[in-house]
Design brief:
Helix content is 45%, strand content 36%. The protein has four helices and six strands; from the N terminus they run ααβαβαββββ. The chain has a six-stranded mixed β-sheet.
């Protein structure tokens, strides 16, 4: 039995070594991707504070505009009571948001909490809780999700979904 186990252990250890090396290489690339995406998150926040619609717009995939807001149940009930024809899911665009940021007469800021990033190196998702402030007051609070792609010129936001709540 011992004569059989020794060669088996050698074969198994040879097979495991390349797998660990591949995993380590993959983790290094993954960490670099997560760091690059985290940089986009920080640029997004800084552009809002600086009223820099041009930088904000540069973070998005230019020829794609998937942007949706969804009212949470409490907000939806309040809106529906005042505006019976209002929609719960509202399409919009990053271009309009960048223009709003650029021209806002008061300070604006988006604070992010519990940021989670997942990527395979080609696509990524970013999920976080947020507070959106205008003139230092919270005007919206909820959760936000970005779908991202690694384009020829780096990571870009391809779509955004966020909840509307208080």
């Amino acid at each position: 039995m011992r004569a059989f186990l020794f060669p088996l252990l050698i074969v198994l250890s040879c097979l495991a070594a390349p797998a660990r090396a591949a995993d380590t290489a993959g983790k290094g690339d993954h960490q670099a991707d997560v760091a690059a995406i985290q940089k986009i998150v920080e640029q997004f926040k800084a552009a809002i504070i600086a009223h820099d619609g041009q930088t904000l717009g540069s973070l998005f995939l230019q020829d794609h505009d998937s942007w949706l807001s969804v009212a949470d149940e409490q907000t939806w009930a309040a809106v529906k009571a005042r505006h019976p024809d209002a929609r719960k899911v509202v399409p919009d665009s990053w271009k309009k948001f960048a223009e709003f940021v650029q021209t806002a007469p008061k300070p604006v800021e988006e604070r992010f909490y519990n940021v989670r990033i997942d990527t395979n190196g080609a696509v990524a998702s970013v999920w976080f809780d947020f507070d959106f402030l205008v003139d230092g007051k919270v005007t919206n609070r909820g959760s936000e999700s970005w779908q991202m792609v690694r384009a020829e010129d780096g990571w870009k936001i391809s779509s955004m979904l966020f909840s509307i709540g208080r």
